[in-house]
Structures are given as C-alpha cells and as structure tokens.
Design a protein that fits this description.
Low-confidence stretches: none
Number of helices: 18
Number of strands: 4
Mean pLDDT: 86
Largest sheet: 2 strands, antiparallel
Structural class: mainly alpha
Strand content: under 5%
Helix content: 55-70%
Strand order of the largest sheet: 1-4
Number of domains: 1
Distance between the termini: 50 Å
Length: 425
C-alpha cells in the first residue's frame, strides 16, 4: 500500500488505473456465472449475485491494503463447481452444509497461509500435480459449459455423451455466443467476455429463447439475510463432512498456490497475497457464496502494466458500483454464460504446457487428475488418484528420492479418503 502514495507523483498511476479497469472487465462475468452455478446447488441466484459482488469488493480491498498486489480475489471457477456438483449434487449435502464445509476448509487454509506450512507444501508438491489440478478443473468447466449451451447431452445407445440438436434454439444461441466471444477474445477486445454475454443475451431476448434466470433487483437486498451466515455445522463430526473438508482444503491451497505463483509479477508478494486469499476465502462462506481464489483474469491487468494493489482497489470499486445494475442480470440465459465457462476452462487447460509429457512418470499422475475430474464429476476423486499414483510411479521409476516425505503423507490421506468414501456410499 505504501507504493500507492508514491504513484500520485508519477505517470504510473494512470497505468495502474487502466490495468484495474481491464482486470475488472475481464472478470466481471463472474457476477453472472458464479450465481448461475450456485443456483444448481440451491442458493437463490437473485441473492448469491450480491454475495459474489460483496465478497469480491472485500477481497480486492484486502489485496490492496495487505498485499499491495495487482490480483483480483473473487469466487473461483472450479471451486464453485466442486461446491455445487461434488458437495451438493454428488455427496447430497445441503447448500448450508456445503457452506459449512467451505468455512472449515478455509480455516485450515488460513492456518497454512499464516504458518511455514505454506512454504513447505509449495516445495513438496510437484508442479506437475499443481498444473494437473488446474487442467482437470478446466476440462470439467468445459464439460459444464458445453452442457449449459446444449452442445452436449446425455448419450444413448451406450454412449456417455452425445451432441445436442441443432433444432434446439438454445444450442444455436450457445454456438453463436461461443463464436462471438471467441472472436472478441482472440482479438483481445477489452471486456470481451462481458460484451459477448451482453450481445448473446440481447439476441436471446429478441428471439424469446428460454432459459433466463429469476428476476433480480437491488430491492432484493432486503432478503439477503436469507443466505447470510447460514452455514450448517450440525454434521461437523461426521466422516463424510470431514472428508469433504479435506478435499476442499487441498483444492483451495493448491489451486491458489498455483495461480498466484503463475501470475504475480513480483514473487516477493506471494506470501501476503496467499494470506489475503485465505482470509477472503473464509469470509466468503459467511457471505453465502463458494470460496474465493485469485482470478486468473488478473493477468489481463498485469499485462496492461499493473504492478501494485491499485489495480485491485480500482476493480473493487467497480464491483461495488455494479451492485446498482444487477437488474439487468435477470435477462441473461444460460446459453449466454456457457461460452465464458468453456473459454475459461480452455484457458485453464493451457497449464498442460508446464507438464513434462515426455516423462511418463510425471505425465501419468497428472493425466489421471485431468481425465477423472470430468469423467467422475468429482474434483476430489481426480486429485486423489493423481496424488496416490505419483509416489508409486516414482518408486517404480527408481526416482523415489524425488518424492518429498510430505507427498507420501498426503498420498496416504487421499487413499484413506477414497476408501472411506467408498464405504459411505
């Protein structure tokens, strides 16, 4: 934050402000996408949109004050998928219980962030597994996006999936939105995602394509207390709850660690950025949304020249202002959101380039994570198999010295996680 005052006397302040605006428009789609995903968990979309905005404001301000880093903290794509499709849909938690899982997981995340454990874990977990998690979650998001666009449906005649019908107006709208958003993205048009959503939504309204969300109005802030501080901890000692906490903690820690290490221009700011992420993640549960992480879209502002927390401050202010325009979200169909989810997933999958594909002992554990997350619909299952497999293939490959002792412990915990989950079913 000290750099903030120094910048007033330089021309760099303008660069930081522009970078903040750029980052905001790059991630602004989260105000629509996150509530739509959480809607599948049972959280009212017309309320979770406020939770998404409020926690993003707090996260950005915290990143400005504490870490002075150009990173946007907002509910994470991938983490919200785990919250909805693994915890609620898969494990049959209520959304209130899933919120409790998020809060407890974030407490462990907080402990790791403010102790030497963060450095120990960062050094002990192979980069190939960190990248594998990001790629696997990305592929999972692609699957979700294709489904919401109507481009894939449940298969028949023995196939898992099949192509959707082009006679379906939702599918046509989804294809249009995907092509439009892709062109805008490749051309690096500022605010490409939000522009794609707006234009696709307008087309959907004109042709009366169904799939719009429930009505949203700023007056519904009066009902926000219905999701505020609603975590259900009644089953906190149950084995299923504890296993869910373990899985989410691993996702939060390693995804955040990987993202921050990848986008921060000044690596010295990693520790405080990681701590800011942990604090905001904890608060997100009380606000009624899935945990926050560092947004990969922060890279757009960094590429624009942003280097300080002013980027986060500007983005946080714009999130706050957007509260007064939430009424427009009621017109947005799922087909307009799907292209953003698909492209975001594809961007996450670019982490494949950091995996040493030529070394099968490195590639195969990451491969298990990548394919099992979308195929099983469980991020936790994919991560478990990858972390269990890694020490084994390294021993077989006579590279056991490369396996950190912590990896053996985590691998055993994931094995126990898989076994106990099977017994609970």
């Amino acid at each position: 934050m000290s750099e903030f005052f120094k910048l007033f006397k330089t021309k760099k302040l303008k660069t930081e402000i522009i970078a903040g605006i750029t980052s905001f428009f790059a991630i602004s789609y989260i105000m629509i996408v996150n509530p739509m995903i959480l809607k599948d968990a049972g959280i009212p979309m017309n309320l979770s949109v406020f939770a998404t905005i409020f926690i993003s404001v707090i996260g950005c301000l915290l990143m400005f004050v504490w870490a002075d880093a150009p990173v946007i903290l907002t509910p994470g794509m991938g983490v919200n998928a785990f919250f909805t499709y693994t915890l609620v849909v898969g494990l049959k938690f209520s959304w209130q219980e899933a919120i409790a899982v998020s809060i407890v997981s974030s407490i462990f995340y907080l402990i790791i962030a403010f102790t030497p454990l963060s450095n120990i874990l960062s050094k002990s977990i192979p980069d190939t597994l960190k990248s594998g998690i990001t790629v696997g979650i990305g592929l999972f998001l692609v699957e979700i996006g294709l489904e919401k666009a109507g481009l894939i449906v449940a298969g028949s005649n023995g196939s898992l999936l099949a192509f959707g019908s082009l006679n379906n107006s939702t599918t046509i709208l989804g294809l249009f939105g995907l092509l439009l958003t892709l062109v805008l993205f490749i051309k690096k048009v500022p605010g490409n995602f939000i522009i794609g959503i707006v234009i696709t939504t307008i087309i959907g309204v004109i042709f009366q394509i169904k799939g719009q969300a429930t009505s949203i109005s700023i007056t519904q802030l009066n009902d926000y207390s219905n999701i505020l501080i609603k975590g259900d901890f009644s089953h906190i000692v149950d084995l299923k709850f504890l296993l869910a906490v373990f899985s989410m903690t691993m996702i939060l820690v390693f995804e955040s660690m990987g993202l921050l290490e990848g986008i921060l221009p000044d690596k010295k700011k990693f520790k405080k950025s990681f701590q800011s992420s942990a604090i905001t993640s904890l608060l997100s549960g009380f606000f009624g949304t899935s945990p926050t992480v560092a947004a990969a879209e922060s890279a757009s502002g960094i590429e624009s020249g942003g280097k300080t927390g002013i980027v986060s401050l500007v983005a946080g202010m714009l999130f706050a202002i957007s509260t007064f325009f939430v009424g427009f979200l009621s017109y947005v169909p799922q087909a307009a959101i799907a292209p953003v989810i698909i492209i975001t997933g594809a961007l996450m999958m670019q982490q494949l380039r950091f995996i040493h594909l030529e070394d099968f002992s490195e590639w195969f554990p990451a491969f298990l994570i990548i394919v099992l997350i979308p195929l099983t619909g469980s991020i936790a299952t994919g991560i478990s198999f990858g972390f269990i497999c890694y020490p084994i293939v390294k021993v077989v490959n006579k590279e056991y010295k490369k396996v950190h002792p912590i990896m053996w412990i985590i691998g055993m915990l994931f094995l126990l996680n898989l076994i106990t989950n099977s017994l609970l079913v």
